[in-house]
């Protein structure tokens, strides 16, 4: 868990650069931009979910302070208040979008985007970089752009760019570009290469059970254009990978953590879809893999899904650069039908555990496929 899964509602933004919230134990928050929309920097020292150090942050070339979070608010049409639609946790590269329900209200917080490459060596996982700087740029075609720079020790540098145009009601869209450049040779964990050794980015969410979740299904498009849909269930193994091996996708395809209606936890949090726009330096196959953790604490991110580089090399030479661009879309929860009611689909019964792919008994997860 990188930060608590609660939503803050702000009725109105103060004038003069400082915003005071009702959350206890928090210092004053700093408005770093306030023209048409608002960006607020938060030290967030009271949140144990963000243990990383605050990051030196600039806006349009002017230093604004050290922050862990940068929050974006859309102003009401009458300017009487604002609705928060995006949180960029610059301290660890996590980005959390939600959507506008109306022009004065937004969905609950739920699934986060992990805005960085990650890798594993024999020494263990290197999941997020140590972030050094964050830069905010406003105006132009992007409207709002976040650039976050960091490093994995002396081994590699990371850069992530998130652009955020004005959201429409029912849909928040961001473009994420991640870049990874090695400064030393990196030998990937040979036991996990092709399974979980090199992630291009990720989604981080929660699935407790069929009544409490921020995501309860997975949807994706394979390289042949076939769309797949797999509901999650209480019977799925915990502390286990979702698939026996990554499920292949490709540029032009997508994967999604789907939020179905009916959750008692964050009932209006988002479905989050990731479209693979382009890859540079990444050759061969990529595929989606996931992990369902043992924790059933709703504040923990127990469900992760990511694009894995299946054909990553055994050793990545020093001086290598990889870059990937994705479109991320947050939309409202949707009704998830029983697979048997989906006319014209191929019903595939799947129960997944590490190294196991078998037909399921009643109550297990079920996947459907259809040609788009």
What does this protein look like?
The protein has 372 residues and is an all-beta fold. It has one domain (18-338): Beta-galactosidase, Chain A, domain 5. The chain is built from no helices and 34 strands. It has strands at residues 18-19, 29-34, 37-42, 55-59, 62-67, 69-75, 82-89, 94-97, 100-102, 105-106, 112-114, 118-121, 124-126, 130-139, 143-152, 156-163, 172-182, 186-187, 198-199, 202-205, 217-221, 226-231, 240-241, 247-249, 254-258, 271-280, 286-292, 303-309, 315-316, 321-331, 346-349, 351-353, 356-358, 366-371. It has a 13-stranded mixed beta sheet with strand order 5-4-14-15-16-17-30-26-25-21-22-34-31, with no helix packed on it. Strands 1, 2, 3, 6, 7, 8, 11, 20, 23, 24, 27 and 28 form a twelve-stranded antiparallel beta sheet that branches. A hairpin with a 2-residue loop joins strand 12 (118-121) and strand 13 (124-126). The two termini are 36 Å apart.
